[in-house]
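> example.struct
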């Protein structure tokens, strides 16, 4: 559960001169802001943590699929642009991007048709 507020504290290390020499004092400054309302609330740490874990899991799945496709010999489709010279290698997967775009569009279209109602 998120707990939010517009107050907080700040610890400041300040130099001081005392009978035993120069040292540091810790001052705690506590402030409360009550007249200002927040424009937007930030998500709490639990929600951010779940989002990061979900994004990490998605990256693992995508990475695994790409790794398996590479091991199966999928190195691109005809129509992908390749340029290789002694020092430079450029690969731009034009047709592969089009195929992936069409597949993702179909998946999203089917999902929206199924969840509409």
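> example.seq
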């Amino acid at each position: 559960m998120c707990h939010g507020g517009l107050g907080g504290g700040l610890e400041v290390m300040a130099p001081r001169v005392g009978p035993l020499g120069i040292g540091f004092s810790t001052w705690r400054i506590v402030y409360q802001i009550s007249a200002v309302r927040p424009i937007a609330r930030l998500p709490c740490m639990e929600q951010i943590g779940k989002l990061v874990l979900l994004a990490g899991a998605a990256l693992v799945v995508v990475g695994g699929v790409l790794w398996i496709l590479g091991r199966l010999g999928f190195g691109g489709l005809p129509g992908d642009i390749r340029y290789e010279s002694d020092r430079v290698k450029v690969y731009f997967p034009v047709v592969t991007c089009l195929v992936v775009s069409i597949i993702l569009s179909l998946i999203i279209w089917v999902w929206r048709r199924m969840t509409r109602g």
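> remarks
The helical segments are 45-71, 94-115.
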